[in-house]
Write the structure tokens for this entry.
Amino acid sequence: LAALAPIASSIPFYPDFLGHNDWMKLLSHVAVFGIGALGINLLTGVAGQVSLGHAFFMGLGAYVAVVFGSPPGDLWGLGLPMWIWLPMAGIIPAIVGLLVGPAAVRVRGLYLAFATLGLVFIGEWAWRNLKFVTGGAFAGRRFPDFQWRVWKEETPVVDFASDGVWLGFEISEEAKVYLLMLGFLVVATLVVKNLQRTRTGRAFQAIRDRDIAAEIMGVDEFRYKLTAFGISSAYAGVAGALFASFVGRQIPETWDLFLSVEFIAIILIGGAGTVSGALMGTAFVILLPRLVQDFTEWLSRIIESGEGTLAKVADLVVAISPDDGGVINTVPGVGPGLSVFQLNQILFGLLIILFMIFEPLGLYGIWLRIRNYWKGWPFTY
């Protein structure tokens, strides 16, 4: 609340914050993926169970939401309100997670990773072939909007899918969706944070650190692993439903192995096993491509101006025409150099390697060092 108070008080002075802008969409993306990251962090970071099946449960949650929330037509749909389809997007993946969990939790390490990887391949096949639900490959289907209805009335009680006036402020659709996603993220964070402090959370950590010792001390390893799998699946399902509805239309190819790897990268870069690390990693991974793109465009403008030493140095790094020989190419598919997308992939790989070698706690570990330094400053001895 202390952090949100200055932001709320500054809104009247920054009307563009509530208007139409890409950053609102980007921050909504961060909030949605933050929910998914909290789920995989609970399973992999807290309970120590490496899973590559996160994309499967996100896809399952998305298609559960579309079946319950979309109106009936050529594709399956029940047209139910958001207060039904969103919880169902978490409940059904959790049930599926509990059903497949017994086979998965009997193995550990790389064997568990490969077992959950099979779920992604099964999901890819199902999403492409169940056209009456998904719309088929490269076609997809429209997902329900963020509109709060009591039942199936024509006019929603609260419409997050259009511009409007809230508390005297003209607020855009993007800002409405962002505030909604932020609210969901806060609730999801509080649940996970408090869960880690309970007996269940401590059992997760004991299994992660010394599973045999934990079982000797009376911790039911199978039960708690299954519980972690179910909760993580529920978080993934809700995140998948929110992400699909936020984007508006999704194709089956969205829920692939790369998405699962992206979430593993998020918790490794942010700091596995910590709530703050999961959120830091999410913001870093989602915002990095946009920051790299904006930085590259800024260098391109510097080069075009042709003024100063910075323009000459930037010309060696960024290629703005097919004849240039820069490392980064702003003309995709033409000329030498890396595209911005390729540069982002290389940066992700390098960051994962560097964090695993030099800072296993990721961004959260760096934050701890900074905080501890200033906590004792100037008497840091």
